[in-house]
Structure formats: structure tokens, C-alpha cells
Input
Amino acid sequence: MTLRPLQRYLPVLDWGRGYGRSALTSDLIAAAIVTIMLIPQSLAYALLAGLPPETGLYASIAPIVLYAVFGTSRALAVGPVAVVSLMTAAAIGDVAEAGTAGYAAAALTLAALSGGMLLLMGVFRLGFLANFLSHPVIAGFITASGVLIAASQLRHILGIEAHGHTLPEILLSLAAHLPQANLATLAIGVAATGFLFWVRKGLKPLLRSLGLGPRLADIAARAGPVAAVAATTAAVWLGGLDASGVAIVGEVPQALPPLTVPAATPELIRALAIPALLISVIGFVESISVAQTLAAKKRQRIDPDQELIGLGAANLGAALTGGFPVTGGFSRSVVNYDAGAETPAAGAFTAAGLAIAALALTPLIHYLPKATLAATIIVAVLSLVDFSILRRAWGYSKADFSAVAATILLTLGFGVEAGVSAGVILSVALFLYKTSRPHIAEVGLVPGTQHFRNINRHKVLTDPGLLTIRIDESLYFANARYLEDFLLDRIVADPALRDVVLMCSAVNEIDMSALESLEAINARLADMGLTLHLSEVKGPVMDRLQRTHFLDALTGKVFLSQYDAYRRLAGRVRAAE
Amino acid sequence: MTLRPLQRYLPVLDWGRGYGRSALTSDLIAAAIVTIMLIPQSLAYALLAGLPPETGLYASIAPIVLYAVFGTSRALAVGPVAVVSLMTAAAIGDVAEAGTAGYAAAALTLAALSGGMLLLMGVFRLGFLANFLSHPVIAGFITASGVLIAASQLRHILGIEAHGHTLPEILLSLAAHLPQANLATLAIGVAATGFLFWVRKGLKPLLRSLGLGPRLADIAARAGPVAAVAATTAAVWLGGLDASGVAIVGEVPQALPPLTVPAATPELIRALAIPALLISVIGFVESISVAQTLAAKKRQRIDPDQELIGLGAANLGAALTGGFPVTGGFSRSVVNYDAGAETPAAGAFTAAGLAIAALALTPLIHYLPKATLAATIIVAVLSLVDFSILRRAWGYSKADFSAVAATILLTLGFGVEAGVSAGVILSVALFLYKTSRPHIAEVGLVPGTQHFRNINRHKVLTDPGLLTIRIDESLYFANARYLEDFLLDRIVADPALRDVVLMCSAVNEIDMSALESLEAINARLADMGLTLHLSEVKGPVMDRLQRTHFLDALTGKVFLSQYDAYRRLAGRVRAAE
Output
């Protein structure tokens, strides 16, 4: 990169210089569309996190602006998202009672911790750590989280109390409180859910068939939640349904985001550190996937380490303005992109729109039923639920299947933190296990060529006094002894052998443990009267071996090609016979 | 393996059938020599573990017999060893006061836990787990342990009290108590240490120059500790030095090993579980290295999983007969082998010899000064200390150096458990880091051949519209995004490109995450108007890809060889120009 340091840390300097009227128009239109979509979504995710509705708006204002300054994606929209809101509820539910001041304060601390971690990871360029979340683990985690979220929102549809952060807890709690279900709430909830599903599946084709353009039809379909909010709010207000027990949003302060200072007691930090780390990594992975997908469409590039800084700033902003942990969301970013946003300024305009909403529109949502918000959450997250990942993983690789299955089961049964941790640990452990038992083939010469192939798969020439082994993996400490065992087992069983060749064409590295294993193999073969040779050693591996005494101690030779080795050694045995 | 199951679990059935007079004679001679060497060594390691001296003898009797029944090595001698005794002291020092009944009871529990874990690992064939201890980590750990052990024994040489499980603790404690040093003890300790060093370095050459055969000279040199024990015991007894403050072994019960039942309270098990696991793994690694070295010399094979069962049985035996954790020791096994032991029966005879010693000889060691035992420990462990591993690792690979340095520093500074755990975690982390950033080369055609080499190292032919990338690593979740980033960065910078080829000759596996990354790369290149091709995909990888929709979605082709790809694609671009 040839950018000056200031521009590296402040991408706004890059795109801000060329900002003109045409980009301004596009950005303003996109911002207006996104603002309308974000109002119900922000309120709903605050409900999911167990926080007052206005915190959802607050969490969308400062973070969007800060991301616009520090982030590298031109289309990413930052704010509360479903999975991170669920993780927030799980994390702070462990340290405070929902609805208390301590609960909201813990949400601020969680956002501050997460923001700090993301910033540090960005400054130390640790973005690669997110790569250890494998795709199957992420897919399993998102699916299981979607189920958990939908289950947790059923209480609002039924108008009952229910608690829990695991599927069995939630279902048992729902069953216990089912007799208290409120019929008016249920009617609103079911109607809203049904309407929103229809909007998602049926409205767009209908509008298209009525002659609307595809982009307009899409935008109209995305305004579905706003319509549901308006209709059910009006119904409750006009019908006085809040008096018959329909839970409503109620009084929402009519104000700009407050300035807040997150609590930083040692106990709170200790209790929230691991959840904050998991939220940071999961949020980063979700955000970067969206950002890269959108950037690739315009041949733009995302800098993952700078993205960490952008998301870190956004979370610190959320912590200082009464919000909760945020990240780049899929649906809002896609809407932003589709609506034609050209620069991060669109985000700043969206923030302005939401600030106006927080100042002026909150009285309008006094009678908004919580069941409607729950319905928007359920419809949104069920589109994330995709158990077909289990079938696909099973068909592709048993190791990937184990990682997905463990992630799903543990997330549902023991909560989001246990699920994602187990998924990461299991996939790393399976990878280490696989590389610790590499594919090792005994090879022979394909007649009429200079190629060597597996003796079990091909008709090849071999020599009774010569054993050639090809190792399909770099040699390192975890598989060094495996090679030793394999070789010695093979050799002890065959007293006719005189020469052993290790064909190293797929060995990209030999670490010190593997070097010592090779020395041991060499010495043990010498004890048995056998000679060890190497062939097709790669340049960098050879450079490193030449800095050691191994090549002096090697009883045999290093052959440039396996064919050279075969010609020399097979001939030697024949000559000796 | 075609053995019947009973013989697999009871190797004694295998070698026992052919046992005859010649093997009996060899085994008896070896047993006599090993017994003489083991008496002072067993007493010394009990002292190191903080236990009464007789427990060292007990820990050598039942375990040897049980290993003879279940183990697969013909020469391995099982009993207390230096590193495991140090780890025992560290582990039970945390749960009980040295010298109390609780301390000895905790040692039994530790041996029982370790035995149970080894047995389970053997039954579930988990011997491969020990491979995750890399050679540099083991070397660093042994060196640092040797320093810790030697430092911890200085208190016996000085005749003072001193405590601690880390080097700073031990040195500070020694310094604080230095004024109380006992001169008579110091004289004995220094004399014994000097004598034993001379025996090790100077006696054997002297005996050889006096005309003694090499084997006899070796055995005489190994009897050095016995001579030191006899001489210093006599000196204390005759000079009445115990009255002037020389600490002696004192009353030792004259009895066979007692039958003991290890305590199994939940708190004790919780406190000792991790130390027991570390002791099991370290002990297993030490033992199997010795066993394999000796077996290879006679073209015998060691079954690592059966070795776990043998060592597990030995440790359970130690727990039931008043001992402490044991493993196969290097020095005693080499003596056993050199003295001509042919079968595990030699071990059984050694056990009989030690039982006689426990019954009849313990009154003779009443006046044995602890300083002499400390001297034998110091001389034995200093031969294990080898800081040159640091220099060798530095010269070979910085990753290996980091692992060794961290292991040594943390072992010395924070104790054996912290040291070995940090070493394992760091080496796994470094391996994961390395594979997460694989070597990726842009390649071109070497003129006049069909070979493709790195464009930065060789003069090769390339085509402005064609980019060929060779990845020198299997593709898996941790490096999937790295490839994506590398490719997209490279492509965004070069608007002339039309075709991209991934050359997969060193890709031994593509996991599901990497498959999804390839799908994303394919889709993003398509968004940019570029075509993606693969070349030289290995058979098993291709089989797996064919079970997916990837090959249908691939915008380009899969070429059997990179040369085919170049011929077709470079031509296509030229034709289009």
C-alpha cells in the first residue's frame, strides 16, 4: 500500500476529496429508504437484547457516523443485528436483571469492551484470527441462533413471560406460562407474522405482475414492517387493546442519544470479557462477509484490519451514546447498496434521519405492540435458519459435519457462547488430527514413463530391495512420529529391503521435530542395515536442511527426481543379486 | 496385526512361550546390575518428590512387574524418574504439606489418576495425542526441569530449609536460609558431587586405560553412586556426624511394599486432574522415546497404544503399593539393555532384587546423608541440561525457537505445569498461524519445458491476460480467506486480466470452508468479468469436488495439467487481441 498513514487510518480522507453532487443525490435517496427500514428493525433488536426500544435507535446513530469515518466499505450499514443482539442478551442476562438500570449499564460496558478489543485487533493486524471460525461453524451457529431467537420471541406473540438462553429452557418456560396467554396479543402477533411472511414471499411477485419495476417492487416489499407497525399501532390505539393486556412499547423519551459513560468495575469486566470477545469475532465475521460481497460487485477492496478499526470505533460510539454492541448487518447493507448508496456519506445521512426519528417520531410508537416487533424479528431470523448445511456437510466431509452438528447442538442446548466456542475448538482439533495422520503412499514407476504413483491404485514397477514412500503433507511435530511409526512398521515386516526413499514433492515444510524424526529414522534404518534417501526436496526445505548436520549424517543421497533415485537404486539391487 | 486379542493386551503371552535357559541367564545378570544401580536412584527420586525414601523402592517393585506383563518393550525399566518426580512434587505440593500423611496420600492419588488416564488413552488408542508435544518443547522442558531439580537439591547439599517450585522462589529461599548452612553437610555434599562427576567423566577412561573391557568399565562407572552412598554412610556413622546436624535418611521400615488405597475425594481429584494429565503425557513421551530407541536396535517394534496400557498398569500398581507416579526411565533402561536383558522377565527379577533390598537392606541406610542422595540427583539431571537447543532452534526456525524459549522461560519462572502447557499451546498456535498464511506463488512457463515456476525466482513466460497462482498448502478454513484476499488484491490491481488459474498440485485437501471460498472467488471473479480455472487437481480432491455443485458453477475449466491450461488460455487471449 502506498497510502499515507493518515489516509490508511481515515479512509474518509480518500473518498471525501472527490465527493460531488451526483454522489450526494444517490446517497440521500439511499439514506431515506434505509432510515424507513431501520426504525422498526432498531426497535425490534433492542427488544431482543432486552433493552428499552430507544436504545435500538441510539445504537444506529453514532456507530453509523463513526463507521463512515473509519470503515473501508462503501455500502456497509452498521447497527444492531439479530445474532449480536441475542449474544448481548445472553451475556448481560448473566450479570444483571433485564429491565434494570444495571442491565442497560452492562450493555454499555459490553459495547465498550467489544469496541476496545476490535480496535486493538485492528491496530495489531489480528484480523486473521477470525479465519479460525470455519464456514460450517458459522453456518451452524447462525442457524441455531435463528432458532433460539425465534423461540425467545414467541413469548411476545403469546403475551406471556418466559426466560432462558437455551432452547430447552425457553421451551419449558413457554410451556409453563402458556395458560396465561393473551388472546388479543396472540391475534396481533399471528396476523403480523403472517402478513410479514406474505410480504416477503408474495408481495414482490404481485407488484411485479401489476407492472411495477423490479427495484420499486423490492423497496415496497422492504417497507412491509413499517406497514405492519403502522397498522397494528393504529389497531391498539383505536381499539384500546392495551387495556385488555396487549403489551405496548409505551413511553419512549423524545431526545437525541444521551452521552453515557460505561461502567468499568473489575468484576463486570471479568464477567463480560469472554462474551465481548465472542461478540467481537462473530460481529466482525458477519460484517466482513457482507462488506466483501458488496465490494466485489464494484471491484472495490476491503481492508480487514481497517474494518476492525471501523467496527471498534462504531462500538465505542455505541457505548458512549446509550446503545449496545453493533456490527455491519446483512439486510440493511444490502438495502443500502440496492438503493444506490455510493459512499459512506449515505450512512451519515441515515444517522441524521434516525436522529430526527428519535427526536420527533417516538410519540407515534407509544401504542406499538411488542408482538409486532417480535413478528418482524421472527420473520427476519427464520430466513437465516438453514438446516440443509447439515446434509451438505455430511455429503462433503465427516469432519465438517461434526463441527456443524456440534455447533448447532451446543448452541441450542447450552447457549450461544458454548456453541461457538465448541465449534471453533472442534474444527481446529479435527484439522490438527487430520494433519497428524497424513496420507502416505507407497509408490512405484508407471511403466514407460518417469512418473511414480500409488502401488495400490496403479499398475507400477517396484523393486523388492527398494521402498519408496510419498508423504502428502508438510512434516511437523504432530505427524513426525506417525511417519516414523509407519516406516518402521513397514520395514520390520520386510527383511528383503535395502534402500528406502522418501519422496518429498508434497512436503512444503520440515520443522525441527520432523527433522529430529528424520534423524531418528536415518539412525534406526542404519541400525537395521538399511540406507535412507530423499527425493524431490523443494528448494526452501533443502535450504533449511543444509543449515543442519542432517545431510552429513544421511546414509544415502538426496536425488533431484524420484526417477533418478529409482534408476540408481533399483539397478544397484539388481547388480548385487 | 493378526494377533489374537488376548495376546494384543498381554504381550507376556507372546514372549513368555519361548522363554528358555539362555534368556533366563541373560535376564538374571542384567537384573543384578540394574538392582544395584536402582537402590540409590530410587531413594533419591523419593527425596526429590518430597516423599519418604522407602516409597522410591516401593515405586520400583510392583510397577516393574506390571509393565513386564502389559508392556511391549523388551528392555524398558519402569520406576521413578527425575522429571516426573519433580512434577509430582509440584503437583502435590499445592494440595498438602511435605512430610505429612496427606502428602503421601496425594502422591498415591496422583499415581492412580495418571494410571487411569494412561489406561483410558491406551484403550481408546489416543497415543497420538503425545505427538502434540513437539521435540523442541520437550527438549526445552527437560533442560529447564533439570535446572529446577538441581536448584531444588542445593538445599540438601547446604543442609538448609528452602522451598519453591520456580527458579526465582527456590533461589530467593536458598539465599534467605544461606546463613544456616551446615558445614559438615556441605563437605559431604560437595565431595559426593565432585566424586560422582569424576566417576561420570574420568573413571571410565581410567579403567579402560588400566586394561578393563568397555562393558565392565561401563558397569563399574555406573556403580559410582553405590560407592558414594557406602562411603558417606560409613563416614556419618563412624564420625557421628548426624549429631553435628548432617541430615540423614533415618529409620526406614523393613518391609515389603504395603497395600495402599488411594484417596478419591472430589476436591483432590479436581486439584490433581490437570497435573496427572501432564505427568501422564510427559511420562509417556519420555518412556516411548527410550523404548523405541532400544527396540529399533534389535528390529523390534513398540506398539504405542499398548505402551499406554503398560504404563497405566504400572502407575496403578504404584498407587496400590505405596509408591508415586512412575514411567520408563532413560538411564535405567539403557543399563538394563547394555547389561544384556533379553525379555521383560529381567524387570521381574529386578523387582525381586529390590524387594529383598526393602526387606533386608534398609537398616544399612539409616546413616545415609541426604546430601549424598541430592548429589546423585544433581549429577544425573545436569546431564539432561542442554541449552544448545536454543541455538540450534534459532538457526533452524524462528517458530521452533519461540516454542523452546517460551517453554524454558515459563518452566523456570512459573513451574513445570505452566511451562509445558505454554509450550504445547504456542507450538500448535504457531503451526496454525503458518498454515493460515500459506506460501502462494505466481507462476509462469519455463521456456522450452512444460514446467511452471515462481515468476519472482525464474525467467518464465507469462501472458498479460492470464494469472496463474500455485498454492503450497492444503486449503482449509484458516487459510481460505487468505487465498481470497490474496487473489482479489492481485486482481483488482490488474485490469488487463481475463483468466485466472489456480494450480492445485500441492493441495492435498479442500475442506468445506475452502470450497465456499472457492465458490465466492468464482462468483466475485464473475462479477468482475473474469473466468476462474483449476489445474492439476489431485484425484481424491477431485472426487470430493464432484459431489458438489462447484464444478457446474465454475466459470472456467479444470485442466489436467497446468501446461494444458496455459496452451489453451494464453492462446485465447492472443487470438482475442
Notes: The two ends of chain A are 64 Å apart (CA to CA). The first helix of chain A runs from residue 5 to 9. Residues 573-577 of chain A have pLDDT under 50 and may be disordered. Chain A has 24 helices and eight strands.
